[in-house]
Fold this protein.
Amino acid sequence: MLLAIDAGNTNIVFALMAPGPGPDGRHSVLARWRIATDPRRTADEYAVWLNQLLQLNDLDRSAVDAVIIGTVVPRALHNLQMLASKYFGTEAVIAGKGDAAWGFALDVDEPESLGADRALNCIAAHALHPGDAVVIDFGTATTFEVIDFRGTYKGGVIAPGINLSLDALFTAAAKLPRIAIEAPASTSVIGRNTVEQMHIGIYWGYIAMIEGMIARTKAEVGRPAKVIATGGLAVLFERHTSVFDVIEPDLTLQGLAMLWLRTRQ
């Protein structure tokens, strides 16, 4: 069984995965757990936490015989590698390194600067949805990736994440309260009080940004492109926009599993 680890700036996701029955390379996610990213957390701490979760799911640690790690937090990598070797008895595959190189062309000025999460999204998006595609990932940052029909990465966009924007409002404006992201109760864009106005600004502002960026991106691509959304907040925005063609909640994890399978082959 494969343990896929997606170490992001805000959270680290651990997922147990197994090959699915279909021909497209999609894997089944058997279990998924999330912990706040802290580069100081040791392999021993990860192991205690994971072992308890495995037991709660009636799973044994010995069932894990392979580990792959994708990270945008370099300081977290060593302890995650130690977790794999010390507690699972295997050397972790590192996404983007050695036999686990990305395996697709990067038609950009600085290919080495592409984050692991974004590269993994490209791998999975092209495998699951061949053709030109735009991937939107709602993470710490909101990112857009453009992949052509050959699977070549053509570039993208990085915008502040939704929660980052909310934190900036709360931190920089003394009289504005901290609010959680949620869809406004109505479709009106004229708020009647401060909190309502903040909800409208962040929610409909992001809808406008997403729709505007997709329209401009499609015009620049010049061919029909499928829009693939991922990240926990994709479902929240789906309610009030038709811009997404498909939502893939586990796109990054699927990319990790596909990359690991490629190293085996």
